[in-house]
Amino acid sequence: MQYLPLFVKLTDKPVLIVGGGSVALRKAGTLLSAGAKLTVVAPEFAAEFVQWQQQGQAELINGYFSPDLLDGKLLVIAATDNDDVNAAVYEAATARNMLVNTVDDQPKCGFIFPSIIDRSPILIAISSFGTAPVLARRLREKLETLLPQHLGPLAELVGRFRSKVKAKISGFAARRQFWEKVFDSDVVRDVQANQLPQAEQRLLQLLDQPQQQAGEVYVVGAGPGDPELLTLKALQLMQQADVVVYDYLVSPQIMELVRRDAERICVGKKAGDHSVPQQDTNQLLIDLALAGKKVCRLKGGDPFIFGRGGEEIQALLPYNIAFQVVPGVTAAAGCAAYAGIPLTHRDHAQSVQFVTGHCRPDGSEPDWHSMSKARQTLVIYMGLIKAGHIQQQLLAAGRSGDTPVAIIENGTRPEQRIVSGTLQQLADLVAQHQVSSPALLVIGEVVALQQDLHWFGQKPQAAVFGQTLTRMA
Question: Can you give the residue ranges of the Sirohaem synthase dimerisation domain (predicted)?
């Protein structure tokens, strides 16, 4: 993060603008709307500056910049069309540890002006750190169409109730849950219809109701890694939760979307490293919910596909803990799509099996015969450690050694890597390319289609030894 976004109260604070033309005028208008006390120095001024001086909103100094003009100022803006003057302002301000903005010269900016969406008292600021101002402006235009005008009156209404809510409801978590209920209620509809007295009365009624602090567990699928694959429901519950209990397979980019002040508890689970036993995770969810917490159990992929989501919900049932389940894009679907591998194809695969590479608790083997049928796609989760065993058993059950395979590492993420080859090379591919978790094995004729259908990230790495993979007809 190159700049720290801050909202600064500028009411009656002294600000210096160097420059009196159209660029300086735009900055001055923004600063005046924030209540700043403006001093503007320039050899000549646009007409609006003169009007502001007559109205007592700005002090104009007809002349040129000198460092003594910085005395007592909070901020300074260099907005002339002379690079030497702008550089002199920047150097003088920097020497005094003052925040300075040099218009259209990002390296000489100690602070920057973002694009602003104003729904006062709701403000949204968007910035590209000065690298792509047109892109930031277009983002602002897009958000302007999405954010309703009633946000401002709604914020003013709830602002008047903050002290009442704080006096009546103790504890930050309980107050946050109350406000979540308000924003899901008809109070919002009344404000939108400009029925403010009715909205205020309805808010009073909600505050008079008994405040229950019942806990709840949200079992949420986070998908394979790309945050854009999250469902809207998943994002909503991630923002509402008091506590987020997550696995290693949840990408850092997705964890960035969790509510900032939510407690975060990692319970591990990755190949070769189960940092928290499953029964301890179950008990953790129970304890948090019984304490009145809204708990988001965030899992990579889909919670009901090799995610133990069902086991965790079963643990909640004896305690009558409320729960929701939000499906996610499972790794098989997400990673295969990003690798350009259709899991089914009417010419090459009429069925698909999802299996886990982990041994069953009783040590029994899966049905290798059913998994070795031709014209079927086999997707193996958590199969890296057992890659050699998987290869051996499928070959022994009759699957052809020439069957195409792909190993998808970090699927759907920017660092996605695909190693491709044939079934008879599987174990050697894992070792040769030092593939690490998270990774998915895809075995079947459809894998060869990635040569034509690949679209995301780097091209698949073909095996550098053994039989060459040929395209399918």
Answer: 150-207
